[in-house]
Amino acid sequence: MNDTKIGHDQGPCPIGRAGSLLGERWVLLILRDAMLGLRRFDEFRGHLGIADNILAGRLRRMVEAGLLVKTPYQDGNRIREEYRLTEAGADLAPVLRALADWGHRHTGGAEEAAPMRAVHVDCGGDLRPDNQCTRCGAKVGREEEAWIRPWHSPAPVRLAAPTAAAARRESATGATVVGSG
Amino acid sequence: MNDTKIGHDQGPCPIGRAGSLLGERWVLLILRDAMLGLRRFDEFRGHLGIADNILAGRLRRMVEAGLLVKTPYQDGNRIREEYRLTEAGADLAPVLRALADWGHRHTGGAEEAAPMRAVHVDCGGDLRPDNQCTRCGAKVGREEEAWIRPWHSPAPVRLAAPTAAAARRESATGATVVGSG
Q1: Contacts of A133 in chain B (CB under 8 A)
Q2: What does the CA dihedral B169, A94, A40, B176 come to, rounded to 10 degrees?
């Protein structure tokens, strides 16, 4: 994500630590796509229009950071690998929703689009920021949360379930803490 | 933030647009510091331990993007400039809070610290993600919101008020939209 080895990676501020993992545009877009069910290298590449080497580098760093895990799958005669969200990766849904709200209010797209909505799969109600359903009042877990992105399709897309495999988390090495966080 | 000119800057997805403005670690840290009242080049430099040229570049991009505005102030005999949050910049508080929550849960600091809290200045109650106060029940505006970062100080710090000056917003130029957002 950032080649600088001097960082806030291990500092006391959780915004600093989160930012050192997530503060990269492609990482945010790959997370968004993974949240919406994409798993394979070719899917990410096709959807994002990203160069192979950049995508490979970002995916590797995201696996190292514990946001994604590589899982084998059968592709004809070959065994290939796909990328599944970890619990930590899936828990970023509220961050992406906050970004979507802000982006809708404060940035202009090529076409004016209706906002992204987070909805309760069961009843179709919109979710508040704390995931309470505005229609039925239920406290909605991630497994019952879907996003509607009207510029893409009117159909709600369920959030991808995180992999059950234990997230392998490697902390960044050699990081030096600077600043007071 | 990102030197690639091919981007999602103008695409229909608000996460893509927000990510192209915010997807850079230093930008997130500068925003955090601005939110907590820092305004001057030397303050950001001292707090972040960032090189002059990198800080200058990030601040310039953040002004161009409409997150900060430059405002003159008197420094002895000299007129210098400080950086104030715009409305759009100040509206990023929920994004930073979501990052802080996630960072606290999923990343480890050098020392185990208590989480960052967003509180209601009037009564000291914690704020829910939708900014309702858990103590007095009030719907709390940004002007009554403070953050407590216990690793730094037990004292709540009020969020900086955005500048009243109209945010000058220049859209990124020369951006080509790729991907379907």
Answers
A1: none
A2: -10
B22, B107, B116, B130, best to mutate vs chain A, most A CBs in 10 Å: B107
User: Do residue B99 and residue A66 have CB atoms under 8 angstroms apart?
Assistant: no
Which residues in chain A have their CB less than 8 angstroms from residue B178's CB?
A: 48-49
Instruction: Convert the pLDDT of each residue in B38-93 to its tens digit.
Output: 999 999 999 999 999 999 999 999 999 999 999 999 989 999 999 999 999 999 99
- Sketch out chain B's domains with CATH numbers: 6-89 (1.10.10.10), 92-158 (no CATH)
For residue B168, the tally of other CB atoms under 10 A from its CB is 11
Indicate the angle between helix axes A41-48 and A52-64, nearest 10 degrees.
120
Of A168, A56, A19, A69, which Cα lies nearest the Cα of B31?
A19
How is residue A67 written in tokens?
């946001």
Q: What ipTM was assigned to the predicted interfaces of this complex?
A: 0.83
Chain B residues with beta carbon closer than 8 angstroms to that of A152:
12-13, 180-181
What distance in Å separates the CA atoms of residue A8 and residue A181, rounded to the nearest whole number?
7
Tell me the pLDDT tens digit for each residue of B107-161.
875 556 789 999 999 999 999 999 999 999 999 999 999 999 998 899 999 999 9
pTM, two decimal places: 0.84
